[in-house]
Every structure is written in C-alpha cells, then in structure tokens.
Design brief:
Bound molecules: cytidine-5'-monophosphate
Radius of gyration: 20 Å
Structural class: alpha+beta
Number of helices: 11
C-alpha cells in the first residue's frame, strides 16, 4: 500500500468500518429512503484520510479498491470538505481548499460504509486543520446530509440508528467481539440492494415470482414463498433480546440474534454469498450474516483464536476474494498522532 506522504500542516484522521448487528428495514418512504432500526457496530478495519492546505481541492486514493473510488466532486470526502466549509462560513482560518489523501483498507461498495467513513474522517480532519471547532453534534448534522451512515462513522462504538440510520443512541455493550469479514469479488450499490428488497417484498405481497436482479447483473429468478417474519415490511423495532445479549458480553448469545432484512436482497443479487455464509457456519461461526447491503459477510467467533481458525477455514473454502480478522467495538473517526500516522 502506498504510504501517506507527510506534509507540513497535514492532518490525518482514522475511521473504522461498520457492520450491522441488526438491520430492520421499514417500507419505502416518499423521499426514497427507508426507515430503519440498525444496530451499528464499528470494527477495527480503518481508512485514513489526510488533508493539507492547497490552492484547489483535489483527492488522491491509495490501497483497497482505489480504482473504484471517484476522484471528482462525487467523492464523499470531497463533498464533506465542501459541506464543512459552507457550514463554518467565516469561522475557519485560511483557505478552504485542501489536498485530500485517502488510504483505504475498507473495500468500496461492500456494506461496510467505507465511503461514509471517508466523509467522516474528512470532516474531523478539516475541522482540526481549519480550527473551526465544530462539536460532535454539528459534525453529525453536516455528516447526515452526506450519507445515512456518516454520523455513525463519527460516533463509532455500538449504537442504535433510527430514521434513515442517522439518528443515533449509544448502546450498552460489554466486552469485545471477534469477527471475520469475507469480501466479495465485486461491490453492490446500496440503492440497488434496497430496490431489490422492495421488489422482493412487493412480489411476496403479490404471492408471485419475480426477477430480482437489475438488468445486466447476474440474473437470478427467485421464487418467493412465505417470508420469514423478520423480512416483512413493517415498522422496524429494536430486538431487545439482542440488546440484552450485547450487555451480557457473551458472543454465543449474540451470534444467533444477528439479523439483516437486506440479506435476502443481497443474496438475490449475489447468489454465491450463500456459499460464503454456509462456509462460516460449517466452520464454527457463532453467527453468519451479510453486512448491511453486502456483499461482505461477517462471521462472529467466540474469541480471537477461534476467529483466526475461522479466517483460515473460510479462506480455504475459496468462497470469497479476501478475508480479514477484526474486533469491535472501536471508536469512531479520530485524529491520528502525526508521528504515528507515518509509521
Ligand atoms: O444515505 P446513503 O447515500 O448512504 O444511501 C444510499 C442509498 O441507499 C439511498 O439513495 C437509498 O436508495 C438507500 N437507502 C435507503 N434507506 C436508508 C438508507 C439508504 O433506501 N435508510
């Protein structure tokens, strides 16, 4: 991976990926979003974003999936810089143009909120660079306009998200959880997975069978029978059993309670993910779930040693592109010590 260049006046922020321990999706809203109940959990897979003063704003990307990251105004970190500059008006010092360097470890379009993470890190880094002194609530408000997952990338830890995922309450969690993340060969666009979820639900309501893949994707005709209760499009509610299990700190209690309403949609678009989930379960995972909109699969292990064994077994099964071992919860976007940033 290309190291971040050290520059005078450069500020670096580090930001974690997220997985969802519960993702309950309500009906489609009139604004194109869905009301959610999401239990976000930040894990130890980090991107780093460095900002430094420049004549004009630009972005360079290194690391995981760099070719898929847009370098223009649609880049979420670029949008974040612009949104913060607009929000602070005259409060900042110096020019608001920055060179943005993104060092990626979080895969793109993977259900891990990597783009939102980079936006959150850019907000934290520019807030420091410009001396704009925005508080956590103000940054979260700016972040929510950029993407539903940005406020959680700022907060980190484990939190319950409602609304479209941007309204957060910290969750009480004991202990640390060991995970294996299995990356798919190619990404899934979040909007496509929500749309597939809506199509599956509409088909279930009609009692029929529909093509759930968008044109040009690996088409899979999915026959739809009686849905599991969790898949019905009702007002989403927090799973109190999951919250109690998280308070207990017992991964064996948490594992069977992991749920994701987007999983059937992700599986319909990427049928091979079934094999990855099965490989995890067969090799001792306490829980196996698609992360968010996918295609990353998250597997919960009883401890770090079990996670290592699981990572080896899933790699050996040949059902994914790459595997990483992580733990959570970890803090949200934070400034990196300038010396540590270049080691
Ligand atoms: O907020 P964000 O830009 O990350 O959302 C990407 C897409 O995911 C939205 O355009 C929408 O299609 C879908 N989405 C949704 N309901 C949510 C969050 C995202 O339908 N609560």
């Amino acid at each position: 991976m290309t190291p971040i260049t050290r520059q005078a006046g450069a500020i670096t922020a580090r930001v974690p990926a997220k997985i969802n321990l519960q993702l309950s999706v309500g009906p489609l809203r009139s604004d194109g979003y869905h009301d959610l109940v999401s239990v976000f959990h930040a894990v130890s897979l980090f991107d780093e974003v460095t900002v430094s003063p420049a004549d004009r704003t630009s972005v360079v990307v290194s690391g995981e999936g760099k070719a898929e990251v847009p370098l223009g105004p649609s880049n979420l970190a670029v949008k974040a810089v612009g949104a913060l500059a607009k929000a602070i008006g005259h409060r900042g010092r110096g020019t608001n143009a920055v060179r943005i360097q993104i060092r990626k470890r979080i895969p793109v379009a993977a259900g891990l909120a990597g783009g939102s993470a980079d936006a959150a890190a850019a907000l934290v880094a520019c807030n420091e660079l410009w001396g704009s002194r925005c508080g956590a609530a103000e940054l979260a408000e700016i972040g929510a306009q950029l993407g539903s997952d940005v406020p959680f990338a700022l907060l980190g830890g484990t939190a319950v998200g409602t609304g479209r995922g941007e309204q957060l309450t910290r969750a009480l969690v004991s202990g640390s959880y060991n995970w294996v993340l299995a990356f798919g060969p190619s990404g899934l666009a979040t909007g496509d997975v929500y749309a597939a979820c809506d199509r599956l639900r509409a088909a279930r309501a009609a009692g029929g069978s529909v093509p759930v893949s968008a044109p040009g994707r690996d088409a899979a005709w999915t026959s739809v029978g009686s849905p599991p209760r969790a898949s019905l499009s009702t007002t989403p509610r927090i799973n109190t059993s999951l919250m109690a299990a998280l308070r207990s700190g017992d991964p064996a209690a948490v594992g069977p309670l992991l749920t994701n309403d987007l999983q059937p949609a992700a599986l319909s678009l990427r049928p091979l993910l079934r094999r990855a989930l099965a490989a995890g379960r067969e090799n001792g995972a306490l829980g196996a779930i698609v992360s968010g909109s996918g295609p990353t699969c998250a597997f919960l292990a009883s401890d770090a040693d079990a996670a290592s064994d699981l990572a080896v077994a899933i790699t050996g099964a040949g059902v994914c592109r790459a595997v990483v071992q992580v733990y959570g919860p970890v803090p949200g976007a934070s400034l990196v010590d300038p010396v540590a940033a270049v080691t």
